[in-house]
Amino acid sequence: MRQLLSVARQVDLSPCATFPVLSSLLESLRRLLHKLRLVGGEENEACCVLSPLWRRRVASTALHQLSPHRLARLISAQILERLSMAHERYQSALTSLESALAGRLHHTEDIKLAIRKKYAPTFARLCLESTSMCDLLMYGTPELGREIGRGQYGVVYAVRGSWAGRSPVAVKSVLPADERHYRELAMEFFYTRSIPAHPRIVRLHGSVVQRHSGAGPCVLLLSERKVRDLHAAVRAGLAFAARMRIARDIVEGIRYLHSLGLVHRDIKMKNVLLDSNDRAALSDLGFCAAEALMSGSVVGTPVHMAPELLAGDYDAAVDVYAFGILFW
After folding, report:
1. Whether residues 255 and 325 fall in one domain
2. Which of 146, 185, 235, 324 has the fewest CB atoms within 10 Å, measured from its CB?
3. Positions at the binding site for ATP
4. Active-site residues: which are they?
């Protein structure tokens, strides 16, 4: 009601050809003014005598000449016209906002793509190479011991003695097959080295990049050495209580990564390492990515992949799905 009254105050009731009632009313007022009785002498200024009775009579006549139906139609027409104009302005404003938002989103996607494809890998590679140079100068090249494990992209060895004052230490030796693999390795180093230490994430102690003539760089990633991975532990036999404790440790590691805005994207038994007390920690962050910058690329181990990951449209929930497969 308050809005209707506000609109009604703005209605224009100026006389026009389509509103003869007001025109006739004004004409009646002109005729009445000619019939007014003027009093006063030559020396006195003339004035109009308007008695209360006359004013009431004129007001009553004017009101009786007004047509409520015509007034209602006129007011309704003007309100509808104003509403139509306001709606057009509203639609125009919405269209402008949608266009501006679409342009901003497109610009944001371009920035995300540039960060994901160019700036982040380049920065991670510079970080890996500069840190590796410092570690090599300060601690030297680690002495490789027995082979602990072998994966798709590299071999894991035990380090003889200590390295950088830490023991026991494991080293993953990787010879990147191409530039894409080198970028993934650099991103693994960057994420593992950058996030704050957590008992459910395998800590990275350092790195060394070895360059040989006629071959590409060999990257050595040094981390704390665990006893075995979850795959070997399950084959050897684990008690039910130990399995539940390991499952809880994995969940804590996943939640910690997600709290930092990171998605592991490759949760599997080979990437869960156990210490002497069968406490678990997540390793191999090579496929880890910031959730805000994920491109929808298909990465990971097929048997643990969520359907939406295969479709290319996914979020942090893919780690939950992979954990469900692992837990099962």
Report:
1. yes
2. 146
3. 172
4. 266
